Amino acid sequence: MAGVNKVILVGNLGRDPEARNMQNGGKVVSFSIATSDTWNDKASGERKEKTQWHRIAIFNEKLGEIAEKYLKKGSKVYLEGAIETRKYTDKDGQERETTEIVLGRFKGELT
User: Which of 42, 35, 31 is nearest to 68 (CA)?
Assistant: First the structure.
């Protein structure tokens, strides 16, 4: 049986999308979104909120164009992608690792 790697998020952009050209000639559009969960604390009755930040990378050309054109800081967005962890070398030569929600070339949804 094949595995499933699917992430669905609804949240608000923390900054405007940023487009970068890759070495292979492709383009990636990236941004971060915040998702929040709220609940009432049973002990105090106080309303609590926890916010999580998620890095998004769009490799799908058409979805990237839509994100650049219509999404801005504060926009609410629904997206479907896959969670991926990758290694890269930063500008100082240090190996780094990052985990992102990726909307791939032939996959992904953005509304």
Answer: 31
Domain locations in the chain as residue ranges:
7-110
Domain 7-110 in CATH 2.40.50.140: yes
User: Which of the 8 DSSP states describes residue 41?
Assistant: -
The backbone torsions φ and ψ at residue 14, rounded to the nearest 5 degrees and listed phi first, read: -90, -15
- Rg, the chain, Cα only: 16
Q: Is 104 helix (H, G, I), strand (E, B) or coil?
A: coil
Q: What are the structure tokens assigned to 36, written together? A: 């929040």
Q: Report pLDDT digits (tens) over 38-53.
A: 999 999 999 999 999 9
